[in-house]
Amino acid sequence: METPVGDRSLGVRSLVPVADARAYVLDRCRGLAPVERPLDEAGGLVLAVPVHAAHDVPPFANSAMDGYALRAADTAGAPVTLSVVGAVMAGETPVTPVGRGQAVRIMTGAPVPGGADAVCKVERTRPGDDGTVVVEATVSVGDNVRLPGEDIAAGSAVFGPGTVLAPSHVGVLASLGIETVTVHPRPRVAVVATGDELVGGSDPLAPGKIRDANRPALLARLRADGFDPVDLGRVGDEPAAVAAVLAAGAAASDAVLVTGGVSVGDRDVAKAVLADLCGDDMRWMQVAVKPGKPFAFGILASTGTPVFGLPGNPVSALVSYELFARPGLRRLAGHVAVDRPRLAAVALADLRRRSDGKLHLVRVVVETGPDGCLGVRPAAGQASHQLRAMAEADALAIVPDGDGVPAGGRVEVLVTDANRVAGPDRTWP
Ligand code: AMP
Ligand code: MG
Question: Contact at 8 Å (CB) between 145 and 118?
Answer without folding.
Answer: yes
